[in-house]
């Protein structure tokens, strides 16, 4: 694969909500995407993630109903102008995608002496997030959409997937075939927030330099 092909996948990747076809991701593709996630770098090679694949329509429905409540709560917290901008924005595709992948983090995975985590405990969760990014890019290359849903109460999700208390839930990812990838992030298209230029994010020698 050329560098240009990789950059093209990075450019094409979108957070997907409304573009799922409704067909389920096929098992071989799902396993390739999960394999890509499992190849992510991790602090001390601890591989602290697990992936819970959820395809039972009743479970997807339960989670979608819970997320709808959280969306309504957020809507009520907004001033009228922001609420009006938020109105048309879809924030999940839980049932339409047909597959949820819950990515979890376990702090004790890899034993007590994790090389590189001693002074920065968050490096464990950073590692799980890198697995998510690998999954997201691999899915994009396979023309499979991914949408990260974070409108939930972690205790509700822990109960839904029977996660023990020492398991940290990092993300619910909606995963499924799409009919297209949008060119722009939804939040930009709907006027919620535009991105900032690279030049504003790059500093030389000191922060702000
Ligand atoms: C940690 C995290 C949580 C997110 N949670 C949600 C969410 O609950 N609902 C949603 O619609 N998008 C969610 N997103 C997607 C972002 O809104 C999206 O990545 C951003 O607007 C940029 O769009 P793009 O990913 O298409 O480039 C989340 C993204 C991240 C990284």
What spatial order of strands do you see in the largest sheet? 1-2-4-3
Structural Rg: 18 Å
- Named CATH architecture: 3-Layer(aba) Sandwich
Contiguous low-pLDDT stretches (5 residues minimum) are none
Based on CA inertia axes, which overall geometry fits?
globular
- Based on DSSP secondary structure assignment, what is the total number of beta strands? 4
Averaged pLDDT, please? 97
Q: Estimate nothing, just give the exact number of structural domains.
A: 1
Give a topology summary.
Blueprint: H1 3-12, H2 27-38, E1 49-54, H3 57-77, H4 80-86, H5 94-97, E2 100-106, H6 123-141, E3 144-149, H7 154-160, E4 167-177, H8 186-189, H9 198-201
The protein binds flavin mononucleotide (FMN).
Flavin mononucleotide (FMN) binds at residues 14-15, 17, 91-92, 148-151, 185, 187.
Question: Would you mind describing this structure in some detail?
Answer:
- The protein has 209 residues and is α+β, with helices and mostly antiparallel strands.
- The protein has one domain (20-179): NADH Oxidase, CATH 3.40.109.10.
- The chain has nine helices and four strands, in the order H-H-E-H-H-H-E-H-E-H-E-H-H.
- The chain has helices spanning 3-12, 27-38, 57-77, 80-86, 94-97, 123-141, 154-160, 186-189, 198-201; strands at 49-54, 100-106, 144-149, 167-177.
- The chain has a four-stranded antiparallel β-sheet, sandwiched between helices.
- The longest helix has 21 residues, at 57-77.
- It is globular.
- The mean pLDDT is 97.
- The site of flavin mononucleotide (FMN) has 11 residues, from strand 3.
